[in-house]
Design goal:
Structural class: alpha+beta
Order of helices and strands: EEEEEEEHHEEHEEEEEHHH
Oligomer: single chain
Distance between the termini: 28 Å
Largest sheet: 8 strands, antiparallel
Number of helices: 6
């Protein structure tokens, strides 16, 4: 992210047609990275250029390949759930002061939803931790299902789903390496079909799909994008921030606290518990793929 002239970040420039104009001195770059104009000069320079990266627009996002250009393959782009390729859904962005793997850990082991998210869930979340998730590996893909039967829905789900009595709940998670997740949480009136319940959103059921797109920035910072799909009525959409922003702020706090302690005590021991199985599998997958890539 720099101009080849005074090293000004080109992200401070502006797009003009199919070119990028540096915001400092106006050098203009084509999509190939070649400088095609210097203000006050009739002829374009022959030796000024910056690196360019293969990129494609899909799902309303820009996907950038940071590796060798000849290895870029659009067919390998992560497939979002419940969002058309042309774009859609509700978009959220967070900057996290923690290594991306701590976010991976957070999304792999959802036991924390019973404790860390008790405030944003509106209380009554602790019982969610008393169930054992189903974990299965499908190649490099990992699927984790948390399912609850005939329990009290946490306050925010009960209130916004208009669920008065016992409920069935779920949080189904899919991991695709290196750092993509799909989470499908929800609750519905007990016995109505859980995830497949035909009850209307906000009238006995509430559910949504969160596509989690994690992009490492540095060893200690991460860009965190979310594209959320939900078929809620208009009257409910104003509540979406409670389920996404409030919940995610709790996750960010936890990840940044872990990063802070890891920096202070890098050699401190950690002990695994049974629900860490998805974390272990995720880390093993990442390590194996890194080893394969370095060959």
């Amino acid at each position: 992210d720099r101009c080849a002239h005074p090293r000004m970040p080109l992200s401070n420039g502006k797009v003009v047609g199919d070119t990028l104009v540096c915001g400092y001195h106006g050098l203009t770059y084509a999509a190939t990275g070649r400088c095609v104009r210097i203000p006050g000069h009739a002829q374009p320079p022959t030796a000024i250029s910056v690196r360019h990266f293969p990129a494609i627009e899909r799902y309303g996002a820009v996907w950038v390949w940071m590796g060798d250009a000849e290895r870029a393959d659009p067919a390998r782009i992560f497939r979002l759930t419940d969002v058309p390729e042309t774009g859609g859904g509700h978009r959220f962005y967070f900057h996290v002061k923690a290594n991306y793997l701590l976010i991976n850990d957070n999304l792999s082991d959802l036991l924390h939803q019973a404790y860390l998210h008790n405030p944003s869930f509106g209380g009554d979340a602790n019982p969610l931790g008393e169930f054992i998730p189903e974990v299965r590996q499908e190649g490099t893909r990992m699927v984790v299902h948390w399912d609850w039967k005939n329990i009290k829905a946490p306050g925010a789900f009960a209130e916004n789903g208009n669920i008065a009595g016992p409920a069935d709940g779920w949080n189904h998670s899919q991991f695709e390496p290196p750092c993509f997740y799909v989470n499908q949480p929800g609750f519905a009136a007990a016995g109505s079909g859980a995830l497949q319940s035909a009850l209307p959103q906000g009238a006995g059921k509430i559910s949504f799909t969160v596509n989690q797109l994690i992009t490492p920035e540095t060893e200690r910072t991460t860009h965190f994008f979310k594209i959320v799909a939900c078929d809620w009525p208009e009257s409910l959409l104003s509540k979406l921030d409670r389920f996404i922003v409030d919940v995610n702020n709790e996750d960010i706090w936890a990840c940044e606290e872990q990063q802070r302690v890891a920096d202070l005590y890098p050699d401190s021991p950690m002990h695994a518990i049974p629900t860490d199985l998805p974390v272990v599998k995720m880390r093993q997958t990442i390590k194996r793929l890194e080893a394969e890539e370095s060959r």
